Amino acid sequence: MAAFDPQQMIKSLPDAFKKLNPATLWRNPVMLIVEIGAVFTTVLAVLEPNFFSWAIVVWLWLTVLFANLAEAVAEGRGKAQAATLRATKRDTTAVKVSGEVVSATELKQGDEVVVVAGEIIPGDGDVIEGIASVDESAITGESAPVIRESGGDRSAVTGGTKVLSDRIVVRITQKPGESFIDRMIALVEGANRQKTPNEIALNILLAALTIIFLVATVTMQPMAIWAKGANPGIPDSLALTGDGVSGIVLVSLLVCLIPTTIGALLSAIGIAGMDRLVQRNVLAMSGRAVEAAGDVSTLLLDKTGTITLGNRQAAEFLPVAGVGEQELAEAAQLSSLADETPEGRSIVVFAKERYGLRERDVHDAEWVPFTAQTRMSGVNVGGREVRKGAATAVMKWVRDNGGHPTEQVGAIVDAISGSGGTPLVVAQKDQVLGVVHLKDTVKPGMRERFDEMRRMGIRTVMITGDNPLTAKAIADEAGVDDFLAEATPEDKLALIKREQEGGRLVAMTGDGTNDAPALAQSDVGVAMNTGTSAAKEAGNMVDLDSNPTKLIEIVEIGKQLLITRGALTTFSIANDIAKYFAIIPAMFAAVYPGLDALNVMRLDSPQSAILSAVVFNAIVIVALIPLALRGVKYRPSSASKLLSRNLLVYGLGGIVAPFIGIKLIDLLISGIV
Amino acid sequence: MGWLFILSLIVALALVYKPLGDYMHRVYAGTKHNGVERVTYRLLGVRPDTEQRWGAYARSLLAFSIISIFFVYALQRVQDELWLSLGFAPVPDHIAWNTAVSFVTNTNWQAYSGENTMGHLTQMAALAVQNFVSAAVGMAVAIALVRGFARRGSDTIGNFWVDLVRGTLRILLPIAFVGALVLVAGGVVQNFVGPHEITTLTGNVQNVTGGPVASQEVIKELGTNGGGFYNTNSAHPYENPTAWTNWFEIFLILLIPVTLTRTFGRMVGQLRQGYAILAVMGVIAVASIVLTNVFELAGNATVPQAVGAAMEGKDVRFGVANSATFAAATTLTSTGAVNSFHDSYTPFGGMMTLFNMMLGEVAPGGVGAGLYGMLVLAVITVFVAGLMVGRTPEYLGKKIGAREIKLASLYFLVTPVLVLIGTAVAMGNEAGLAAMLNSGPHGFSEILYAFTSASNNNGSAFGGVTVNTPWYDVALGMCMVLGRFLPIIFVLALAGSLAKQTPVPESAGTLPTHRPQFVGLVVGVTIVLVALTFLPALALGPIAEGLF
């Protein structure tokens, strides 16, 4: 992702100016105070113009402008995306089943429309008749077409996508104006962005700090007047006269002390967090969900497709005594040549790779397809009858043919089941040849991901329809913390509720209609875009790539969002120490010369000290915009380690940086002021 | 000697830490009532087995405190009509109000001179009683907050009347009884004798008053109250005769605030959390005590450098080090008893006593008040630090959300706002300035100290300000009331919202709050926040005076 482009800053400048409107700014109390201060000092500078006053006025306005710029830049990226989406949202017409032609915008829930090849689907809905290939690149960016058909879990279609072949009848499920694309546009634009719970809490803390510094600054005035009055011989300075500290300096001190850095960047951080999800093709329906992702303590992961590659594959040929491996491989391959199931294909591939058996053309073969009744498949060719299938079914077939399977077969079958695999018995007429070991293959790198999760304090639970034995074997191999075997949708829902009662936050992915209750119950429910519209309605995020593994990335983005806020808050508060050392001696060293000892930076003059602090305060906002948008670097590790690292960088760094920065600015401007 | 004094105190506190902390846990967690308690509840008309929501708890507490203020006020106003008045006139209205508020809020700011104003009955029935119950109120609030952390999904946070009665009868009274006997053995007086006229060695005539001193002295320290029987407080030989009674009084001051951290650990079921809070208090306290000693022993000021030591305002019985330690202990807690004249301290030594109070008196703080103040600071720390580990911040499994941080922030805001606005108003106002006896930064420090002491419910005085004027009595009285009860309301509300939550289970992703890392963080956040708040004021006072 292009982290940051200086061009965006310039493009966003007009928006930054628009945001100077107090009616917009009141949502951000810290910056509102700065703006009020800027107005106040402008009036003072007009009444009593001098270079110092005007310099302060300019930099105070710049402070507000920089804060607006941060927000405008963050929003700008979403706007660009929204524009692309809007372009796809052309005016389309819809043909109802009745033959009536209406504009797409007039469609209501429950209307049934016909869409044929080459047409744009007029609204979100479910296919109720037919099958078609659909180009969904407008929303997913993925150019390969997908299949949509009535019934089952692949019935959902999205308005704005294009039917490439065939004809389907779609029942509209959206309300007018609330299509998926409409919501997507609103989301990336941040049009109705709500503050998230943590953001609200942080805003309260920032408001409290602002009040404290406001009180500290305002109450200083009578103390300063008295101090000046008690030392009559001392001439007035620019900062302090018999009327107290000058308004310009007082406002400067206030602006330097209140947490402007985090106040300026807070909303940009939030928008950028949502944006980072969009970059990964995930749509969060609310910022609340993104934040909750950081808090997740239990991840429910579907075994198939998420943890394993999804298809069981041949991993071993185990012949019975008296049969050679090669012989078994040959029989297994022969029986699978016409078998187009993934398991069947994998047997052919395995036989070729391991035993060098090429695929061959078999003539006059009679293929016996798999049925739910026989639970086996095979071939009759040249007098040979070969079958492969479920152990009980094949063994019954052998017995029916007059054979007597040995106990060894049972032992091999049990051993495979025990290890989590699926045994497939291969037999010829009245003799069992051996067993094919079909194995669920764990995706590479999953164990490392789960170890990482554990270090982050997240429990991973694998959900599978397999029996407990098989489930345990896969769970052990993948390294998940727990598993739920023979899971029904009700089990899944119960598990989520149980975890939540213990105070845990649960995240899961789902795509089927029967996942909907669990998706709705979970704190972070990521629906696959390929899923049904019920699933998409129930979840609070949609993954356009339909990649369940992405849940892990979503959690990391949620954490990164919170860390960025915390780090910049710490940085902002830590900055204040240096600013005091700049401004307090500048204000009072004239009355109490001893206080010059606090001028540890040896700043040139009171004016340059105060101006340097104000300039630093403004510049640091711009300097941190890229960080706010990109987010603080996140490496999965324990809370303790994370804290130590961030404290060192943003806490200690926040104390030291302004001492250096203010001194440098002072060196630059000391000749001018 | 100074080091041995501090070290022996730490050892003594370590010895009683476990038994007393566990005992207090049993007191507050127990379900049985003894006979005296049952009678008390019947007289009060409360049902001791009914629990209260935070609102009811707060209303009971406020009602009790308001009635107490009226009672203490009335007794002072009619003391001449009652027994043991020693012939003293009724206390003037503004002083009576100030004193009533002062003792009910556990401040014990004394705008009057003890032995010359109050009869024995007022001292015993009004002031000493408040020394007990105001301390028990503070402990009750702390326990209620801890319950908030410890409970899961609960609407209630305990019963105020039960907490009040048990704290008084089962904790404060027994310790006070034993402590009083120890003090009597050490030479503290305990009688009903009125003023004696004595001719001193130099031929002057002096009035020496006896009275029930030991019984009041012990609770003055134990309940971190600080209101002396005599005007000179613990510098008076009848209150604090020897170096070892001095040691014992500091021990009493620190006893409950320190051991309550153990009670806290027990109640939340994780002793190490209690140790962590104790460590935060310990680090701040030891640093402060050592710095105060260093500043006083170095004597960085014109007069001490001329005469060789900062002995002005310190009693030769105690010397510089033991006085400095007492001064730090009394301001680190909300005691405010003094055995030396803080006004005479070196600028930086005096600043330490000010800064101790500005910290909110949390190391270890007043009885109860120290613990709840420190827990609020821990909540604020957890909020900032917790975000940095990428989770919604949580402390002891309870999430620190918008409501919690709002209450914690409001708590934190109260005292700085009172101190700064109070001082600013005094500095910009005829009545405020007229009372100043000194000029320059030191004169300013004296006003700042008065408002800091009142708002934080400490009660010690720098001196140098004529504070028994109506203006100061009212202004400081307001600071005491608001500085006591606003934070209490916020703490109880916080307890209520925490108690409702179901705790989040701990995991590797949880910020551990028992490690040195967290201890250091709370210390850092506390000191930085307080320093940033008060630096302008301190710069115009003690810092300007010290950097001459």
TrEMBL record, chain A:
GO terms for molecular function: ATP binding; ATP hydrolysis activity; magnesium ion binding; P-type potassium transmembrane transporter activity. The keyword 4Fe-4S does not apply. It is an enzyme of class 7 (translocase). It catalyses: K(+)(out) + ATP + H2O = K(+)(in) + ADP + phosphate + H(+). It comes from the Bacteria. Its EC number is 7.2.2.6. Keywords: ATP-binding, Cell membrane, Ion transport, Magnesium, Membrane, Metal-binding, Nucleotide-binding, Phosphoprotein, Potassium, Potassium transport, Translocase, Transmembrane, Transmembrane helix, Transport. PANTHER family: POTASSIUM-TRANSPORTING ATPASE ATP-BINDING SUBUNIT. This is Potassium-transporting ATPase ATP-binding subunit. It comes from Herbidospora galbida. The lineage of its organism: Bacteria, Bacillati, Actinomycetota, Actinomycetes, Streptosporangiales.
From TrEMBL, chain B:
HAMAP family: KdpA. Its main location: membrane. It holds the Pfam family KdpA. The keyword Cell membrane applies. GO terms for molecular function: P-type potassium transmembrane transporter activity; potassium ion binding. InterPro entries: KdpA. The chain crosses the membrane at residues 56-75, 82-104, 124-150, 171-193, 244-263, 275-295, 369-389, 410-428, 474-498, 518-544. Keywords: Cell membrane, Ion transport, Membrane, Potassium, Potassium transport, Transmembrane, Transmembrane helix, Transport. This is Potassium-transporting ATPase potassium-binding subunit. The keyword Nucleotide-binding does not apply. It is a multi-pass membrane protein. It is found in: Cell membrane. Belongs to the KdpA family. GO terms for cellular component: plasma membrane. It comes from Herbidospora galbida. Part of the high-affinity ATP-driven potassium transport (or Kdp) system, which catalyzes the hydrolysis of ATP coupled with the electrogenic transport of potassium into the cytoplasm. This subunit binds the extracellular potassium ions and delivers the ions to the membrane domain of KdpB through an intramembrane tunnel. The system is composed of three essential subunits: KdpA, KdpB and KdpC.
